[in-house]
Design goal:
The protein has 3 domains: 5-186, Alpha-D-Glucose-1,6-Bisphosphate, subunit A, domain 3 (Alpha-D-Glucose-1,6-Bisphosphate, Chain A, domain 3), CATH 3.40.120; 189-419, Alpha-D-Glucose-1,6-Bisphosphate, Chain A, domain 3 (3-Layer(aba) Sandwich); 421-556, Alpha-D-phosphohexomutase, C-terminal domain (TATA-Binding Protein). The chain has 18 helices and 28 strands. Helix 2 packs across helix 3 (64-77), helix 2 (35-46) crosses helix 5 (138-148) and helix 7 (200-209) packs across helix 14. The N and C termini lie far apart (55 Å). The structure holds 1,6-di-O-phosphono-alpha-D-glucopyranose (G16). 1,6-di-O-phosphono-alpha-D-glucopyranose is lined by residues 20-21, 114-115, 283, 287-288, 329, 352-354, 371, 373, 375, 500-502, 510. 1,6-di-O-phosphono-alpha-D-glucopyranose binds at residues 20-21, 114-115, 283, 287-288, 329, 352-354, 371, 373, 375, 500-502, 510. Keywords: Carbohydrate metabolism, Glucose metabolism, Isomerase, Magnesium, Metal-binding, Phosphoprotein. Belongs to the phosphohexose mutase family.
Length: 557
Amino acid sequence: MTFDIKPVKTKNYEGQKPGTSGLRKKVTVFQQEHYTENFIQATLDAVNASGFTLVIGGDGRYYGKEVVQLIAKIAAANDVKKLIIGQNGIMSTPAASNMIRKRKANGGFILTASHNPGGPKNDFGIKYNIQNGGPAPEAVTNKIYEITTKMTRYLIADIPDIDLSTIGTTTIGEGDETFTVEIVDPVEDYVILMKEIFDFDMIKTFFSKNKDFKVLFNGLNGVTGPYAKRIFIKELGLSEDSVMNCVPLPDFGGRHPDPNLTYAKDLVDRVRNEKFDFGAASDGDGDRNMIIAKDFFVNPSDSVAAIAANAGEAIPYFKKHGVTGLARSMPTSAALDRVADKQGLLHFEVPTGWKFFGNLMDAGKCNICGEESFGTGSDHIREKDGIWAILAWLNIIAFRNQKEKIGIKDIMLKHYSTYGRNFFSRYDYEEVSSDSANKMVDRLREIAKDGSFVGKTFEGYEIEKIDDFEYKDPIDGSVSSHQGIRIQFKDGSRIVIRLSGTGSSGATIRMYVEKYTNDASQFEADTQTTIKSIIKAAVEISQLKEFTGREEPTVIT
Ligand code: G16
C-alpha cells in the first residue's frame, strides 16, 4: 500500500436511520464532526465493500463535492478498488442507476435529498444503491443503521483531493494495492440508453412536422438541465427556449425542486398562459416528473397507467421485450390495476419507496411501475426516471399522431373511456410536530385493529374495511409492516393516511384520496370538487385538526 490509512476515533450519532430513500437531514446535521464519515463507514461495513467498484452520483446540491471527497478517502481506506464519479460530482439518480448496471459495479452512493430544497441551511442526503442499480432494500438499510449505533472508529486514507472537473482515470498506489478513480461524463451513457428505448427519429419527425406543437421543460435548476438540453434540443431538435431553469445550482436557485403544481408553479403558469401543448418538469436528482398541458394536468397515477396502456404498441423497448407486469405503490390510485386487468398482465401493490419494485423487476415480474409521488419508470434501470417518463409521453404522442392529431388531453380522455377514471388527490401537511403526527397515526392503528369504525358512515361514505398495510415481498418473503392506514369505503372510494419518510425535520402527514367513476359525463369533472366530501371524511375520521391544529394542507397535488 502506498498511502497511509488512519483510524479516527468517533462517537455515535442518533437518528442515522435511512428513510424512504436514504438518509436525509439538514446540511448542518451532516456537517457535524464525524457525522457524515460515520454514515459512509457504516454503509461500507454493512455491504462488505472490500474489493468493490462503486459509482458516485449526485444532484449537485450544496455540500455534495465535500462529501464526494470524504467518500473517496474512506473508500480507499476500506479497500474499495474503484470509484466511477460523475464529472463535478453530478450524475442524476437514474443515470447513476444505469451506470451501476452498465459498468457492472457493486453499488454506489447517490448524494441527494431529491426534491427537498438545497443550500447551507437546507437539506442534504446520502443514499446507497446496490448491484442491480436500485436503492438498498430494508435488510441493508437496517444493517447500516444498526452499525451507526455502535460506531467507535472510521478509517481514512491519506490521499489527495480528487480533481472532479476533469474526465479521465487516475490510479493511486501500486500493484494489487491500488485505488482507481474514473471521472465520467454523466450524460453520455444515459443518452445512449434512452436512444435504445425510444424512437428518437419518430419523435424528431413529429416535432419537425408539427412546428405548432409547443413544448416547455422546467429543470428546476436540478440535475436534469444538461440531460434535457442534450436530449430535447440537440437530439430531438427543439428550440433553445423549450427549456427553462436548466442550469444545475447548489441551492436550486432558492426553489423547492419538486415537480408538482405548487412548487413548479412557474411552469404551470407559463404552460397555461402561453398555451403549451406539452409541459414537463423533473426534480432535484432527476427521478421525478410532472406532465401537464395547457388544458390538462396528468395526475401521476394516471400517467403511469396511460404509459402502460400504450407502451406495448408505441415504445420500441416494450415492443421488443413485451410487458409482463405492472406495479404501483399502495397509495397510488388503482388506475394502473385496471390496465393490468384489461390487458391480462400481472400487477403488484407495494409500500411507498422505489426500492420495493427492485425484486419484482429482477424476477421479470414487472416492467412498468409508478407512484403517486410523481415517480414513473420501468425495468430499464432500478430507479424511477423523470426524463424517461417525459420521453415515454413524447413517444406515445408521436406514435398516435401518425394517424390523427391528438394531444395529452385527448389521450387521457380516450384512456378514461376504456378504463374509467380514478380521481386522485394527495393532501400534505408538512412540518407537523412528530409527536402529534405519531399520536394521530397510533389512534388510527387502534381503530384498524379493533374494527370499531367498520360500518360507520362519514359524509355519506360507509366504511367497509380499515387496515394498516403490510407487504410480503413475493420474491424474498421479507415483510414490511405499518406502511399506511387504508380506509376502504363501500362504493370503492378510498383514503390512505401515512407519514412521509423523506422529510428532514418534524413530520409530514400524507392523506391520499381516490374515487372511481365509469360515468363518461364525469370524466372531465374537477378533481377537487369530486373528492371534496371524501377529504372532509378523511379529516373527520383521522381527527387531523384536533391532533395537529392544522386547518389546511401545505401542498395539494
Ligand atoms: C422517494 C422514494 C419514492 C417515494 C417518495 C415519497 O422519492 O423513492 O418511492 O414515493 O420518496 O416518499 P414519502 O411519501 O415517504 O415522502 P424521492 O424522489 O424523494 O427519492
